[in-house]
Amino acid sequence: MIRFLLNLLWLIFGSGIVLAIGYGIAALVCFALVVTIPFGVAALRLARYSLWPFGRTLVDKPDAGLPSGAANVVWLLVAGWWLALAHVLAGVAQCVTIVGIPFGVANFKLVPAALWPLGRQVVESP
Hints:
By secondary structure, the chain is mostly helical. About 70% of the residues lie in helices and about 10% in strands.
């Protein structure tokens, strides 16, 4: 019940909708450029994760290989570093108040996903 409440508050007040829209727009651009479709799939995964982050975690896919690692390097250079920086800045700003600390922690939890999204999957936390 607490996770549901935190996710609902995150969606409304914590930036969940804004992040999901941003990642969704990035996915549409990646899908339009055909060659970057894997990045679009990763952006959609990030959009879904950013909508409902509490009670979920990011784990490595066991079958991810060298192509996803190489693509992650390209992602990191093109988009990952500034997305991660935005999550860090938003997390710090949200941690200024006691009420915002859970939302700041959720933003910090999205940093690894923004830096290295390919070859990972979002699963429910135990």
